[in-house]
């Protein structure tokens, strides 16, 4: 599995670095190098930051807190204080810097803590705002990705139409088209 950014929120995309949470988990942040690559793939930083095992453990803690908070928001359940406090502490740090270059384009700078602060801020804004009510979980088995349903009718069923949605629709078509039905 490679990194995908289809959740509609950077914090949820960080939480989405674990796939198939209720089955055979796939952790895309298994090493410090994976986390460093994620910060660049997420367009938080332009340069791969230094990441230690301790940094990875901290980022995984933040990721899991975001997932639990998003699940609580989706279910209308109260937030656990420890998760909320961890997310708030992370979001309070200075975010990644952005600058407009002379000829246009962005320059993104900072270290791992700045990148995590930026992702945590996105999650805080989601969970504390009206879009928290739009958090959904992908209906495709075994996907467990959470996303913001920004569709016109608020009827989106899959995290990504090109992946999970396409597979689900193809499976439904094959089921309808079986001989001897």
Architecture (CATH level 2) name: Orthogonal Bundle
Helix/strand order, N-terminal first: HEEHHHEEHEEH
Cα Rg: 18 Å
Tell me the distance between the termini: 35 Å
Order of adjacent strands in the largest pleated sheet: 1-2
CATH class type? Mainly Alpha
How confident is the prediction overall: mean pLDDT?
91
Number of individual domains: 1
Low-pLDDT stretches are: none
State the CATH superfamily name: Jann2411-like domain
Query: Can you count the helices?
Result: 6
Helix content: 40-55%
Structural class: mainly alpha
CATH-defined fold name: Jann2411-like fold
Largest sheet: 2 strands, antiparallel
- What does the overall shape look like? globular
Question: How many β strands by DSSP?
Answer: 6
Beta-strand portion reads 5-15%
The oligomeric state is single chain
Report on the structure:
- By secondary structure, this protein is mainly α.
- The chain has a single domain (10-176), classed as Jann2411-like fold.
- It is built from six helices and six strands.
- It has helices at residues 10-15, 32-41, 53-75, 81-92, 112-127, 161-176; strands at residues 18-19, 26-27, 97-100, 106-109, 135-137, 146-148.
- A two-stranded antiparallel ribbon has the order 1-2.
- A hairpin with an 8-residue loop joins strand 5 (135-137) and strand 6.
- The protein is globular and about 60 Å long.
- It starts with 9 loop residues before the first helix and ends in a 5-residue tail after the last helix.
- The mean pLDDT is 91.
- InterPro entries: ABATE, ABATE_dom_sf, Znf_CGNR.
- Residues 135-176 form the Zinc finger CGNR domain.
- This is Putative RNA-binding Zn ribbon-like protein.
- Pfam families: ABATE, zf-CGNR.
């Amino acid at each position: 599995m490679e990194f995908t950014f289809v959740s509609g929120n950077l914090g949820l995309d960080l939480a989405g670095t674990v796939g198939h949470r209720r089955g055979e988990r796939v952790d895309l942040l298994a090493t410090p190098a994976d986390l460093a690559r994620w910060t660049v793939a997420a367009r938080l930083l332009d340069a791969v930051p230094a990441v230690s095992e301790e940094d990875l453990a901290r980022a995984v803690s933040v990721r899991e807190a975001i997932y639990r908070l998003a699940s609580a928001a989706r279910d209308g359940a109260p937030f656990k204080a420890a998760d909320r406090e961890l997310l708030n502490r992370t979001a309070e740090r200075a975010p990644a810097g952005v600058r407009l270059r002379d000829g246009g384009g962005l320059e993104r700078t900072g270290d791992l803590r700045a990148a995590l602060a930026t992702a945590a801020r996105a999650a805080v804004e989601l969970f504390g705002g009206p879009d928290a009510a739009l958090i959904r979980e992908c209906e495709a088995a075994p996907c467990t990705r959470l996303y913001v349903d920004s569709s016109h009718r608020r009827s989106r069923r899959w995290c990504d139409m090109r992946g999970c949605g396409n597979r689900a629709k193809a499976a439904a078509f094959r089921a309808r088209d079986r001989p001897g039905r």
